[in-house]
Amino acid sequence: MSVEIFGKVNQIIEEIKTASPKAKEEIEQFRIKYLGSKNVLKPLMGEIRNIANEQKKDYGQLVNQAKQVAEAKFQQLKDALESAAEDASAHNIDLTAPGEPIELGSRHPNSIVMNRIIEIFQRMGFAVAEEREIEDDWHNFTAMNTPEDHPARDMQDTYYLKDSTEMLLRTHTSSVQARVMTTTQPPIRIIAPGRVYRNETISARAHCQFHQVEGLYIDEGVSFADLKQTLLHFSKEMYGPNTRIRLRPSYFPFTEPSAEMDISCFVCDSKGCNICKYTGWVEILGCGMVDPQVLENCGIDSKKYSGYAFGMGIERQAILKYKINDIRLLFENDVRFLKQFSSTL
User: What is the pLDDT of residue 305?
Assistant: First the structure.
């Protein structure tokens, strides 16, 4: 009796190994027969009571082996079926079907405005100069005629690096001018675009990070008239051929004399609107003649050379150009906001 039962289990194992169902329904029938709730192996397990005691262990292991062989065979058949379905799907691709649309992005308004400003000044012979954003105190302040005890430092609340009084996040791209002037002899004609940082409360009108473009021209015989004509040409190129400018006296520690520059409001044609606060003028930048002390600080002979400098905030230009009412929108990376802008001005 024991020999017959052992032989029956071995016969089932052999049937499992040689089974070769192909279709999904056939494989399911295989699973029901050998692994289902009423599979053919269950009655064989009940036959263990008819097995001699010394053979019960071997018989139990043989029945378990049959179950394991069935499970492995079913997994093999299932994997083969899925693989065949994938291959069929790959070969049934409709190459004439339209592809999925790929959305095109757009440039950030800051990038659009900055690239436009750079393009205008490059056509006037200005080279682009870029430098580090982590700067030392001398290039950021002292070289620009702002020593440690100078009251003008209060105009810029600065981010210093941890445990340092010498290294900081630059507060303006004037530090680029300082590095160029200390390594290059005139004539110098550069613009310095880049990101700057100031410890300011974030609001609709101010942010702790923003972008600037500063310009510098140093040579023999450079005058305020040269500065005025350069900025007039820039304004007409940037805001339209009918743009007018006006210069108002101001103060910056690195220029003397200094001025704020306004342009005629391009929104209302100087008639008065909320953009120009009903004055007909919009302030866009600061400028002036390079202070002789700044030239001397950087190793340039102030008796032989003179120069002018100017600086403007990119965000301010973008806000004016696109009539944006909150500077924070430029830093939130909201695709709904950004996709409104074309790639060129």
Answer: 96
Distance CA 176, CA 181 (A): 9
Q: Which two tokens stand for residue 202?
A: 């974030």
Amino acid at 68: Q
Residue whose token pair is 């016969």? 11
Report which of 69, 93, 89 is spatially closest to residue 81, judged by C-alpha positions.
89
Query: Residue 182 — pLDDT band, cuts 50, 70, 90?
Result: very high
Place of tokens 């210093």: 160
| CA distances (Å), origin 127, targets 164, 177, 339 | 33, 12, 31
Tell me which CATH homologous superfamily contains domain 109-338. Bira Bifunctional Protein; Domain 2 (3.30.930.10)
pLDDT surpasses 60 at 97 = yes
The upper half-sphere exposure of residue 312, i.e. CA atoms within 13 Å in the direction of its Cβ, equals 26
| C-alpha dihedral sign at 285, 131, 315, 204 | negative
Report how far residue 157's alpha carbon sits from residue 171's, in angstroms, rounded to the nearest whole number.
8
Cα–Cα distances in angstroms (integers) from residue 91 to residues 82, 85, 86, 242, in the given order = 14, 10, 9, 64
Q: How confident is the model at residue 167 (pLDDT cuts 50, 70, 90)?
A: very high
